[in-house]
Amino acid sequence: MTNRRTVITGGSSGLGLALAHTLAADGDELVLIARNPAKLEAAAVEIRAAVKGARVSHYSVDVSDAQALQETFEDIIEQIGGIDLLINSAGVLREARFEDTTEATFRETFDINLFGVINCCRAALPSLKENSGTIVNIASMASHAGVYGYTAYCASKHALKGFTESLYFELKPQGVRVQLICPPEFDSPMVDALDEGRSPENMAQTQMVPKEPMDVIVRDTMKAIRSGQYHTIAGFNARLAGFAVQHFPGLTRKLGEKIVKKASRGAS
User: Is the overall model pTM greater than 0.85, yes or no?
Assistant: First the structure.
């Protein structure tokens, strides 16, 4: 039993909720953060029903609202006494060609996927330093390569990867562990919603790495949290793809070009 005090953003659904179940079983005291209060309450009820004695509280706040988030974290720290683990799992995923992606979509994507993480890290950092805590940022395989239709999403995740690596070097001497998790697409409400209206080109390119089941992503993420490993690509197929992108970037780009071209011809 860990008895950690853990804050999870995006904790009402998807990976955040799945991790919350596992961490509750480990004995963590959980605080879930998300925007929808009804979903948050349902998530807390679900965890308490699944894990006897689970300690779960929740706060409805938009991670892109820095002031509201600061006030929320102050309240969280007062209520539970501090933070040992911060998991930044909140995110948005939109798919459209660059020419069809509005400035508003770019800003929303960066506000949540990048600035939401920055806001949470800033608000939690004093307590994390006091408790020699850990920050876990959930990025994506999209932080390693470009994908058709993901100009906003890939850009935000590449930025998150750079932020996380820089933060690692700054906080390591201060006793705060920083970790980066990069899953491929996996079974989740966010990806399922996207599947309903993907472009053929995006569908073809993303399927170069088969979609993983949620339990695989949770397993690899928890393994990383327990071991302290800085960078984790979750899922075996994604690790193979990550190796190829790192060591054979020209080849993987050419392969992506061919797949996108074939999908585009089939759609016309």
Answer: yes
